[in-house]
Amino acid sequence: MSARPHRLDPDRVVEHLPRLYRAARAWTGSREQAEDLVQETCAQLLARPRLVRGDDLGYLLRALRNTMISGHRSSLRRPQTALLPDDLPASDRLGDPVAALAGHELRRAIAALPEAFRDAFVAVDVVGLSYDEAGRLLEVSAGTVASRLSRARDRLARELDGTSDDPGERRAE
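== Sigma-24 (FecI) ==
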């Protein structure tokens, strides 16, 4: 049974910005890219009225993910630039260097996950959705979300412990 369509309310979008930002940060691995992604997504969504079926958060997360994928595809057509050590964001140079390194390593490890695992991890562990909500968002069953989430957590733990050289990890999922 499908929910009745309703207009996306801009005031309700604002309520979801922290969750959207956390999801974008986990997907992109960068504070600046996450902010840009959320801003671009909101600008596109609010440029014209939208009809939404179901809950607003699920719609917003799908739109965020689609914006990210579109941006990634278009960036593949642009020349790539390298980030030099002096060009690191000031936020990574200030404060506790150990914490900054740990946060960077975690974001890098999340970004390196296969897309299906990363999406499940971000939906449940970063955004805070239930398995059922994540399943609806990702269009899979709650059991599939649980399986992907378990595998994502295992890979992250191995990667962060430095034991990711498992030959079984290379097989296709």
